[in-house]
Amino acid sequence: MLAITVILVGLLALLGLEFRKRNNRTSDRIYKMLGHASYAKYLEAKIHQRNSELFPLKSRLEADQFLRDTEPLDFNFLDRVRKVDQAFLEIVAAAPIRRPTSSLETLSSPLNFTGFRSRLISVMNSRDLSGDDVSPLKPISSVIEANENLFGGGSLLEELFRQAVLSESLAQFRELTQRGKAKKLSVESLMEFRDTLNRIESPAEGSKKAIQSEVLAAVDLISSNQLKFFPTGIVGYFFEADKYCFLAHRVELLEELEQVDSLGELTPVTEFPWYAIYSKSLVSDDGFNPALKEGIFLDAVVSFTIDYLSFEIESRNEGSGMLDVPSGYALKSTNPETGAVSLEFRIDKVLVIPLMTPRRNKLCAPYRLN
């Protein structure tokens, strides 16, 4: 009986050893799928090989320290709020290029992302409350740029913050147009705002890269077992098949992600083999599809907004609004009774649509062109 037990344990250990070799090959395959030899190389390329036409990725340490050093603000003292907001924007603008972080820092960053978002929203709200109409688009543009500097190129959480601030910025722009201020804006300010929108990373692409970053960071932690999630030593051999289940699912996810432009969403994992004890906890993709849907939707809204800006600019320069719609998300229509000309959002052209809310409906509302 003892001999049989020893043989079985030996066979299981050999099987575990074989799975360990397979896991190492699978981890290498995941890195190669994204074109890099390690997670550190992946992040370094994301920062230093970023498209020069996009806003750069800045260090967040200085902004985080600024928030730590700033006393709580009271909106009853608007001048102080505005001074703090301006100082925050200056800190972000002067910050050096971001340094690559470890996989652990990516998944559990100590930075005050909520504070960053609150400060950026405050920049727009405090200017609005002040009644400053000299250049109403300037604070919105400043926020969009700082938003890219702080949240661009990050984890899925950072991408969700980026999308939230971008959505609020576009909503603020809609407020301006609905108040009848659009015709009062100079052509120069409209062109500058359009240039700002053209320099942001595509929200759809941002969501995709954030998921890649999240997957790669998790694979790096699991492969190196930095968190000691899986048992170590001889016992660890018996969990190599479980680890392989996790890595195999990550390969499938990355392959699907390459086709997401046509699929619209990822296939959720619903079944696991009996031995995948830890993988059931690790493979949690609940936030991926909502982020992808929001990114695809916001991508369309940004294109729609750029189309409107182009119509507005060209109509003033040439005296006509008869332009082609480059993005395909806008449709010009004329009310036969009133003669009102509008630019309508082609929501039917959006691949996947998130749950519509009052905010999203506002972003989709038609623009009046005359």
Would you give an account of this structure?
α6 runs antiparallel to α7 and α6 (113-130) runs parallel beside α8 (156-178). The mean pLDDT is 84. With 370 residues, the chain is mainly alpha-helical. β1 (330-334) and β2 (341-345) form a beta hairpin. Helices cover 61% and strands 3% of the residues. It is globular. The protein has a three-stranded antiparallel beta sheet. The protein has helices spanning 2-33, 39-48, 61-69, 78-94, 103-107, 113-130, 137-151, 156-178, 187-198, 203-224, 240-257, 260-263, 279-282, 288-318, 358-364, and strands at residues 330-334, 341-345, 367-368.
Quick summary of this structure?
The chain has 370 residues and is mainly α.
Structural descriptors:
single chain, 370 residues, mainly alpha, three-stranded antiparallel β-sheet, 15 helices, 61% helix, 3% strand
Q: Structural class of the secondary elements?
A: mainly alpha
Gyration radius, in Å: 25 Å
Extract low-pLDDT stretches. Answer: none
Strand portion, in percent?
A: under 5%
Query: Main sheet?
Result: 3 strands, antiparallel
Helical content (DSSP H or I, runs of 4+): 55-70%
Layout of helices and strands:
Blueprint: H1 2-33, H2 39-48, H3 61-69, H4 78-94, H5 103-107, H6 113-130, H7 137-151, H8 156-178, H9 187-198, H10 203-224, H11 240-257, H12 260-263, H13 279-282, H14 288-318, E1 330-334, E2 341-345, H15 358-364, E3 367-368
Antiparallel strand pairs: 1-2, 2-3
